[in-house]
Amino acid sequence: MAMYIAYADKLLNFAEQHARDIAQQWQKALITNSKTPSYKKVREFKLVNQGENFYKNLKKFYFDQNTYDVVSAYFSKFAEDQFYESIPLDEAIYALIMLRRHLWVYAEFQNLFTSALDQYQASDGINRTVLLTDYATIAIIKKYKELSK
Q1: Residue 9 and residue 30: Cα distance in Å, rounded?
Q2: Which of 124, 110, 117 is nearest to 2 (CA)?
Q3: Where are the alpha helices (DSSP H) in 2-148?
Q4: What is the rounded distance in angstroms from the CA atom of residue 65 to the CA atom of residue 49?
Q5: Residues 144, 80, 103: CA angle, nearest 5 degrees
Q6: Please, what is the average pLDDT of the chain?
Q7: How many distinct structural domains can be found in the chain?
Q8: Which CATH number do you get for residue 140?
């Protein structure tokens, strides 16, 4: 178990250290993706800051005792920002998916986990990150419902 946490720490520390670079790649992908056309009108710095903030806080989300509550509060605010930028719900959810995916793409590109054993042991980090973004999805949908009333 401790070994898995060490690998998760490796990924989370990497995300924190490279948050700006990962966020910039996420922003570029977001504004060019055919599934997220509404993001073209959002200012670059705003998207990069949102992404960077997520990557810098990922470790906090990962290890917090009240993960669901912390992630829900964070992504309720994210949803509110998206809603007031007139981003449709489906695009906001896809942006979240891309946010998660870009962490793995960037880590893979940087050869963070070089061996098959590294990749196998990193799976706990992957699974936990997926769980966090599942919580985020619920929070985004709830906030959009609330704001649409």
Answers
A1: 27
A2: 124
A3: 2-17, 19-32, 44-63, 67-84, 89-109, 116-121, 123-148
A4: 26
A5: 100
A6: 87
A7: 1
A8: 1.10.490.10
Helices 89-109 and 44-63 pack at an angle, to 10 degrees, of 70
HSE, CB side, 13 Å, CA atoms: give it for residue 104. Answer: 13
Closest alpha carbon to 73 in 84, 91, 60, 85: 60
Q: Are 97 and 133 in contact (CB under 8 A)?
A: yes
CA distance 57 to 45: 18
Query: CA nearest 57: which of 5, 99, 86, 101?
Result: 99
What percentage of the chain exceeds 90 in pLDDT?
66
Q: Which domain holds residue 111?
A: 2-148
Residue 48 tokens read as 């990069």
Q: What is the mean pLDDT of residues 132-144?
A: 96
User: Helices in 64-111 by DSSP H: which ranges?
Assistant: 67-84, 89-109
Q: Supply 17's token pair.
A: 């250290």
Distance CA 119, CA 110 (A): 13
Amino acid identity at 13? N
Average pLDDT over residues 47-72: 94
Q: Tell me which residue has tokens 């994210």.
A: 78
